[in-house]
């Protein structure tokens, strides 16, 4: 509820890529790549399917009307208007002599001429070859028809059928609608309205055209787009935030009421938690301008940490009973909770050293939240409890806690002395074998739960329109527009070779529709030879007069200086279908994207890119997974550094031996946790390392309080027990997450904190035992 109220101050973000570090490409290339990916994030594709050709068309028109009325699309294409093709033809016709298909460009002029003349003669001899004399003289070789045929491969399986982009497959007709959404699509409110509008339109159309359940000609509509995955991920994250936060809070409420038997400690704890979460949210929104839902998932577990300070003060209040003094109580616990806060901050701060914005948000949220919770305990609790006395008969109010504490301390004292200590150590040694079973998995797809239904929808849409990747593509750049187009064409030659080898099924590039000036000039030059040396014989076969031949030659000569230029092409209808591949000027370069279709799993696109200077292969998933692995290793070293810094800090107060006794339990807990994860077959990634940092921060809290406990660690163990229960509850719920990264994080902390609790008495001074 609190987060919902604050959503107006710092908006909640669900953009998964915003959690990840910036690419290690140069800034201009990274910006061009991001521009292309943003375009794809706004795209939505819908496929309308039915065995009835008439019904699928009517359903498509109905759906188009409903989507247009929703107002969520800046562009929606359901049917290519007849004038579109006419306009495209009119645009290209003046440049017909400069256009040649990809196969024709590689042929010598004489072979090209022979091929064009034979095709022309065959066309004229066919029933479709009835053309007027003007048309024949202006395009005797049917250059426009040849060029348009060469482009058919780039359109995938879809073919225009009276304007509808249609595929007939498996006994059904499938029609595609594509749309470009308006505005920012990765905010929670925008996602909800967009997905709801699309789903409502889809359900209405399916209902209108499926007259009977199970009818053979019923209409089915499949939607695909990044926004559906973002919405599903946000819903899952919000659900987990509610489960984790509410579950942890209910556990705290039950625990406090059961122990203290009064609502006042509960109220104080809730205020402490609320101020911590509020401070974390506001600080994160102030620093970053937004708060990611993933931050809230981890921030919800802050409840289990911030409550530690409250429990230590309340247990002290409980212990003193009628002799209660707020100042004396604070003075007794202040050294422990101050050092505990400092070491917890040292555990979180290394996250700020990573380039992951998501980790930086978690660090800011957690550090500011813990500091505010600590300040609330130190400055507000003494005032609130200044005239309050603890419940009389304090020990009997929660007998189970007293019995457990006494039993645990007794067993610890008898077990961890003499030869028994050696036997306990030997029993733990086999667990360490699990370290050799650990495996690494840095795949970033663990960051988000994958919806099987959405993945099935994506696969179906790709099977209809063709497998065109959006997170894997070539990025081509040049210092000028023409150098870019020339390189784009050169890359196209390499890709056509791969198609012949079966490595690809196709590709889409801007130079197929907008050839470079050099390519246009080459095409014209080859046709010059054809017109001068081969066309006269062609005219003679057709019986064309010399005057007619001169008309054809004049038309050819007049077109010599015509050129297709990017600026005018982008303003034409010709750019309406694939203009998004042109990324334009970014920095001091010009960029375009080349999409690949049907790539063989064993294909190595990086090797293709390496052959061409100015070509990069962009694999956002693979690239970020690589960075994920690099920073996992970095955070491992930061973990070691954090242990060193804390040891040095504690050596100032306790000496080297005392500091080691404080640090050793969490260190052993980390080792045991990793061993158990190895035995369980858990793969390790960055989030496991972050969990180990938290184990350090929380575990050192426990051992510090024991070290500061003086001659009676009994009440310290009571407070630590209460703290451990709330922390385990919080992170135990994280371990139930359906998202692999969050689940691994929660399980790691759950195991680590449990080990820390069991080993924390190692820090007790021998005299106290």
Task: Describe how the helices and strands are arranged.
Layout: H1 2-6, E1 11-13, H2 27-41, E2 43-50, H3 53-70, E3 73-77, H4 82-92, H5 109-125, H6 133-138, H7 143-150, E4 159-161, E5 164-169, E6 172-181, H8 188-209, E7 220-225, H9 226-260, H10 263-288, E8 290-292, H11 293-299, H12 303-320, H13 326-348, H14 357-384, H15 399-415, H16 418-428, E9 439-440, H17 452-465, E10 468-478, H18 481-500, E11 506-508, H19 517-542, H20 546-558, H21 566-570, E12 582-586, E13 589-597, H22 605-610, E14 615-619, H23 620-679, E15 683-684, H24 686-707, H25 714-734, H26 740-759
Parallel strand pairs: 1-8, 9-15
Antiparallel strand pairs: 2-6, 2-7, 3-6, 4-5, 5-6, 10-13, 10-14, 11-13, 12-13
Helix pairs in contact: 3-8, 5-19, 8-9, 9-10, 9-11, 9-12, 9-25, 10-12, 10-14, 11-14, 12-13, 12-14, 12-25, 13-14, 13-24, 15-25, 23-24, 23-26, 24-26, 25-26
Descriptive notes:
With about 775 residues, the chain is α+β, with helices and mostly antiparallel strands. About 60% of the residues lie in helices and about 10% in strands. It has 26 helices and 15 strands. Strands 2, 3, 4, 5, 6 and 7 form a 6-stranded antiparallel β-sheet that branches. Strands 10, 11, 12, 13 and 14 form a 5-stranded antiparallel β-sheet that branches. Helix 5 (about 110-125) crosses helix 19 (about 515-540), helix 10 (about 265-290) runs antiparallel to helix 12 (about 305-320) and helix 15 crosses helix 25. The two termini are about 45 Å apart. Mean pLDDT is about 80; it is low at about 1-10.
């Amino acid at each position: 509820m609190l987060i919902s109220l604050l959503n107006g101050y710092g908006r909640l973000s669900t953009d998964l890529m915003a959690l990840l570090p910036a690419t290690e490409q140069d800034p201009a290339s990274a910006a061009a790549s991001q521009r292309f990916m943003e375009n794809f994030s706004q795209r939505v594709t819908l496929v309308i399917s039915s065995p009835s050709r008439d019904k699928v068309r009517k359903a498509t028109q109905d759906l188009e009307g409903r989507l247009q009325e929703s107002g969520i699309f800046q562009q929606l294409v359901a049917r290519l208007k007849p004038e579109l093709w006419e306009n495209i033809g009119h645009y290209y016709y003046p440049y017909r002599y400069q256009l040649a298909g990809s196969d024709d460009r590689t042929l010598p002029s004489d072979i090209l001429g022979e091929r064009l003349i034979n095709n022309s003669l065959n066309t004229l001899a066919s029933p479709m070859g009835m053309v007027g004399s003007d048309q024949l003289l202006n395009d005797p070789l049917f250059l426009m028809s040849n060029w348009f045929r060469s482009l058919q491969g780039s359109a995938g399986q879809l073919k225009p059928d009276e304007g509808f982009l249609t595929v007939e497959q498996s006994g059904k007709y499938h029609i595609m609608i594509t749309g470009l959404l308006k505005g920012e699509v990765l905010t929670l409110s925008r996602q909800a309205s967009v997905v709801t509008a699309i789903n409502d339109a889809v359900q209405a159309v399916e209902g209108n055209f499926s007259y009977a359940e199970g009818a053979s000609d019923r209409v089915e509509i499949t939607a695909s787009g990044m926004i559906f995955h973002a919405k599903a991920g946000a819903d899952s994250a919000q659900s987990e935030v509610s489960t984790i936060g509410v579950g942890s809070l209910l556990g705290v409420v039950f625990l406090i009421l059961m122990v203290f038997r009064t609502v006042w400690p509960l109220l104080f704890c809730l205020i402490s938690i609320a101020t911590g979460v509020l401070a974390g949210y506001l600080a994160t929104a102030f620093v970053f301008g937004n708060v990611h839902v993933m931050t809230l998932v981890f921030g919800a577990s802050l409840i289990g940490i911030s409550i530690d300070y409250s429990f230590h003060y309340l247990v002290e209040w409980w212990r003193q009973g009628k002799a209660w003094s707020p100042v004396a109580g604070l003075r007794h616990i202040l050294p422990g909770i101050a050092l505990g806060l400092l070491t917890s901050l040292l555990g979180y701060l290394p996250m700020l050293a990573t380039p992951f914005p998501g980790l930086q948000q978690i660090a800011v949220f957690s550090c500011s939240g813990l500091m505010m919770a600590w300040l609330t305990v130190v400055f507000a609790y003494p005032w609130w409890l200044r005239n309050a006395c603890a419940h009389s008969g304090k020990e009997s109010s929660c007998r189970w806690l007293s019995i457990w504490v006494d039993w645990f301390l007794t067993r610890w004292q008898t077990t961890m002395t003499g030869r028994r200590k050696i036997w306990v150590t030997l029993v733990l040694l086999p667990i360490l074998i699990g370290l050799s079973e650990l495996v690494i998995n840095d795949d970033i797809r663990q960051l988000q739960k994958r919806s099987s239904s959405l993945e099935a929808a994506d696969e179906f849409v790709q099977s209809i329109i063709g497998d065109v990747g959006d997170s894997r593509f070539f990025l081509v750049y040049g210092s000028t527009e023409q150098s870019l187009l020339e390189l784009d064409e050169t890359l196209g030659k390499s890709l056509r070779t791969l198609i012949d080898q079966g490595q690809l099924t196709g590709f889409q590039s801007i130079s197929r529709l907008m050839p470079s000036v050099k390519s246009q000039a080459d095409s014209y030059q080859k046709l010059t030879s054809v017109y001068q040396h081969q066309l006269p014989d062609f005219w003679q076969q057709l019986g064309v007069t010399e005057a007619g031949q001169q008309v054809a030659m004049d038309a050819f000569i007049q077109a010599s200086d015509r050129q297709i230029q990017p600026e005018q092409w982008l303003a034409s209808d010709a750019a309406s279908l694939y203009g998004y591949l042109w990324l334009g000027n970014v920095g001091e370069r010009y960029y375009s994207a080349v999409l690949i279709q049907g790539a063989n799993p064993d294909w190595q696109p990086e090797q293709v890119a390496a052959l061409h200077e100015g070509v990069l292969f962009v694999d956002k998933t693979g690239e970020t997974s690589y960075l994920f692995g690099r920073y996992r290793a970095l955070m491992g070293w930061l973990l070691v550094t954090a242990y060193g810094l804390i040891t040095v800090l504690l050596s100032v107060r306790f000496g080297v031996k005392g500091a080691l006794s404080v640090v050793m339990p969490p260190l052993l807990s980390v080792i045991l946790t990793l061993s158990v994860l190895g035995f369980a077959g858990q793969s390790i990634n960055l989030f496991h390392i972050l969990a180990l940092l938290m184990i350090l921060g929380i575990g050192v809290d426990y051992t510090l309080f024991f070290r500061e406990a003086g001659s009676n660690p009994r009440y310290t163990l009571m407070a630590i027990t209460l703290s451990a229960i709330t922390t385990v509850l919080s992170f135990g719920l994280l371990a139930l997450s359906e998202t692999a990264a969050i689940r691994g994080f929660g399980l790691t902390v759950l195991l680590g904190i449990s080990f820390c609790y069991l080993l924390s008495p190692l820090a007790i001074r021998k005299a106290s035992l």
